[in-house]
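Regression test case RT-17, inverse folding.

Input:
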């Protein structure tokens, strides 16, 4: 049964909700700030917590890799902007990592509720570790949730971005454990003539008529 919390949760394929928020880089309007870039919007349970610290600093260390993919990063928790700024300074001093992306201060939980980041069964006063990958058209392309006690895998988030961008750019699909450079899946046939046409492609690795792979290089 849908609760008030889950009924309005955005889904893959939905337009990402727009919002205005206070951040460590000033007030911003989300869609305007994001522009026509890809974006990763992620939430963390609370400032000055150990697992969250490892996540935010790893996102920061790999910010250039995301930038190369034209992906903007933005974080969120239901802490104040003053707490965010103090924590940011603490991470710079203690770990030598500067958080270069904005952190949303969501004290009233308005943004967290728009994105369904609060799961009462896991915690009613903190956000879960949610990840939203949003494309240049503001469409939500992937959603990943992690529990409070388990940190995210940034390698997997990067792989997911690569797979989405490859699938879009090449009109293909990406198989299990796919990484850049691996073969991709040719979209399955929709007609009898397409079934026959696929059989003539010598460059395809054919497992069967419905499962064929090809190299992009």
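Golden output:
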């Amino acid at each position: 049964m849908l609760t008030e919390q889950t009924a309005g949760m955005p889904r893959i394929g939905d337009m990402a909700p727009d919002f205005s928020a206070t951040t460590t880089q000033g007030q911003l309007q989300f869609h305007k700030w994001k522009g026509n870039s890809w974006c990763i919007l992620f939430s963390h349970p609370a400032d000055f917590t150990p697992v969250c610290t490892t996540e935010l600093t790893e996102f920061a260390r790999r910010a250039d890799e995301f930038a190369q993919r034209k992906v903007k990063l933005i974080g969120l928790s239901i802490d104040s902007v003053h707490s965010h700024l103090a924590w940011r300074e603490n991470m710079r001093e203690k770990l030598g990592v500067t958080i270069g992306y904005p952190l949303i201060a969501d004290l009233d939980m308005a943004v967290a509720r728009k994105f369904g980041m609060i799961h009462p069964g896991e915690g009613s006063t903190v956000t879960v570790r949610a990840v939203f990958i949003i494309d240049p058209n503001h469409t939500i392309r992937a959603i990943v949730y992690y529990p409070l006690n388990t940190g995210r895998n940034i390698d997997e988030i990067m792989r997911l971005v690569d797979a989405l961008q490859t699938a879009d750019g090449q009109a293909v699909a990406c198989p299990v454990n796919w990484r850049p450079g691996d073969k991709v899946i040719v979209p399955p046939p929709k007609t009898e003539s397409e079934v026959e046409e696929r059989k003539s492609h010598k460059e395809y690795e054919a497992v069967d008529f419905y499962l064929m792979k090809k190299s992009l290089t």
